[in-house]
């Protein structure tokens, strides 16, 4: 077992029985579930919308090279600059080169999981550059020196009391401030940062091939300010963020909103097509897009699992997953957590260290059911498990357990020998430790199903 897998198991055991954590997450996801249910009411035929979106994304994934070339050509024609980054290090260095070119020392950032993936904030801070998160949730976790807990709601693990205490400790603010009062005070701080920033950095919800545009969706206006107020705008996006046409946004924006936050449409939706033109007053004078691979082509090479690149990062699968709701986002030790993270992380970060995530699932199918682009997530988890075995990533203990249980389960007389109390005793010897000290090991029935079946049929 890798160190990362061992740490995952230990943290999972602790977090699963952290009652305060469970209470906070249950409350916050409960709020989401209520909004999600209302958000779906806008659809006359939700399944049709999901099928259309899935079909578009499948075509994109299978023709990714040509779609990316179309985007690059059209974005360049709009006056923008496209930079290709093979991995996280190259992406970070390209950002640094742009900042040095413009003498930038202050950066404002919109919430972006891609920049979290390449650990951009830490890198810029080491270079003496201030990199400030301007999304309120991201601002909170940055202030707490933590990673985002969730793809969409990064501070989901914190209650309003936790947040008030954080601002008391870091800013000296009154611990009794309400969420509205805290938001108002943060807004004053951030507005000054927007005015004085040298560069704005965002992600991209979608890259639009036919117009060469970046589509951003958010609820606070910080994204619109990050890309329009500083003189330079840098967008960093994975190769999978492409959609073919600007006309596809009427399908993808509502799906992203309803599944991400339960809204009919998010408050701010922006389309950026290069730097500002001569006749325009607002906008950056220079606009860059860094298109990131970072092992996505490893996933693309998998004929069956490449469908995971269809993901639009709505976070719905995390909110539906019973495992995620119990062990929390930080336990995964990966940028992308929950079911989608468990599918893609072994390919992005390495099967050896992250194969265990594909086993951290009940395979209940709730994630597949809620996915707006119909990614069969629970099936892909099984395929990852298969590939982990093919790549010989199984430990000696795992091999012995599978081989032993296979022989045991294939013999009816062996199963019948261990019945009732005898079975409970022997099984508990082997797996009671794995079951944990916080749960009572359930006793086996006195009679097996086979025995009861035989008795019933004899009476009949």
Write the layout of secondary structure elements.
Elements: H1 3-16, H2 19-39, H3 46-62, H4 64-77, E1 81-85, H5 88-101, E2 106-109, H6 113-117, H7 120-126, E3 130-133, H8 136-143, H9 160-171, H10 179-196, E4 199-202, E5 206-208, E6 213-218, H11 222-228, E7 232-238, E8 242-243, H12 249-260, E9 268-272, E10 286-292, H13 296-300, H14 316-320, H15 322-327, H16 338-349, H17 351-354, H18 366-370, H19 377-390, H20 396-409, H21 412-417, H22 420-435, H23 449-459
Parallel strand pairs: 1-10, 2-3, 2-4, 4-7, 5-8, 7-10
Antiparallel strand pairs: 5-6, 6-9
List keywords for this structure.
460 residues, alpha/beta, 3 domains, 23 helices, 10 strands, globular
Write a short abstract of this structure.
With 460 residues, the chain is of the alpha/beta class. It has helices spanning 3-16, 19-39, 46-62, 64-77, 88-101, 113-117, 120-126, 136-143, 160-171, 179-196, 222-228, 249-260, 296-300, 316-320, 322-327, 338-349, 351-354, 366-370, 377-390, 396-409, 412-417, 420-435, 449-459, and strands spanning 81-85, 106-109, 130-133, 199-202, 206-208, 213-218, 232-238, 242-243, 268-272, 286-292.
Describe this structure in words.
With 460 residues, this protein is an alpha/beta fold. The protein has three domains: 1-42 and 310-394, no CATH class; 53-294, NagB/RpiA/CoA transferase-like (Rossmann fold), CATH 3.40.50; 396-459, no CATH class. It has 23 helices and ten strands. The strands form two sheets. A six-stranded parallel sheet has the order 1-10-7-4-2-3, sandwiched between helices. A four-stranded mixed sheet has the order 8-5-6-9. The longest helix is centred in the N-terminal third of the chain and has 21 residues, at 19-39. It is globular. The protein starts with a helix and ends with a helix.
């Amino acid at each position: 077992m890798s160190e990362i897998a061992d740490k995952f198991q230990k943290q999972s055991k602790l977090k699963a029985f952290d009652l305060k954590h469970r209470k906070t997450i249950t409350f916050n996801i409960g709020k989401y579930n209520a909004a999600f249910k209302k958000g779906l009411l806008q659809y006359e035929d939700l399944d049709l919308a999901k099928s259309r979106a899935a079909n578009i994304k499948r075509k994109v994934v299978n023709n990714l090279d040509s779609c990316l070339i179309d985007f690059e050509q059209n974005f360049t024609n709009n006056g923008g600059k496209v930079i290709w980054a093979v991995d996280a290090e190259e992406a970070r260095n390209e950002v640094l080169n742009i900042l040095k070119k413009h003498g930038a020392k202050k950066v404002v950032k919109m919430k972006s999981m891609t920049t979290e993936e390449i650990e951009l904030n830490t890198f810029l801070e080491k270079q003496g550059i201030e990199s400030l998160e301007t999304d309120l949730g991201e601002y909170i976790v940055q202030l707490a020196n933590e990673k985002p807990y969730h793809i969409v709601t990064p501070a989901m693990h914190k209650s309003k009391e936790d947040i008030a205490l954080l601002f008391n400790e870091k800013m000296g603010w009154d611990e009794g401030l309400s969420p509205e009062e805290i938001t108002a005070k943060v807004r004053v701080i951030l507005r000054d940062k927007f005015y004085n920033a040298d560069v704005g950095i965002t992600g991209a919800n979608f890259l639009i091939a036919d117009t060469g545009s970046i589509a951003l969706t958010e609820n606070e206006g910080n994204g619109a300010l990050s890309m329009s107020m500083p003189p330079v705008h840098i967008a960093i996006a994975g190769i999978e963020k492409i959609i073919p046409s600007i006309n596809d946004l009427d399908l993808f924006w509502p799906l992203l909103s309803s599944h991400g936050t339960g809204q009919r449409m998010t408050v701010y939706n922006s389309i950026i097509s290069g730097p500002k033109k001569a006749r325009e007053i607002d906008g950056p004078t220079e606009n860059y897009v860094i298109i990131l691979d970072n092992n996505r082509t490893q996933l693309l090479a998998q004929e069956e699992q490449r469908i995971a690149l269809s993901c639009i990062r709505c976070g719905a699968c995390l909110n539906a997953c019973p495992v995620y709701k119990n062990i929390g986002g930080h336990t995964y030790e990966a940028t992308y957590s929950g079911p989608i993270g468990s599918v893609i992380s072994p390919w992005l970060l390495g099967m050896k260290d992250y194969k265990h995530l594909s086993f951290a699932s009940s395979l209940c199918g709730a994630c597949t059911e809620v996915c707006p682009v119909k990614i069969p997530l629970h099936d892909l988890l099984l395929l990852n498990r298969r590939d982990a075995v093919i790549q010989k990533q199984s430990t000696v203990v795992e091999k012995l357990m599978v081989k032993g249980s296979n022989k045991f389960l294939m013999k009816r007389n062996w199963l019948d020998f261990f019945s009732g109390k005898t079975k409970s005793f022997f099984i508990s010897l082997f797996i009671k430790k794995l079951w944990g000290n916080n749960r009572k090991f359930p006793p086996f029935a006195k009679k097996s199903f086979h025995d009861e079946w035989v008795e019933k049929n004899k009476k009949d």
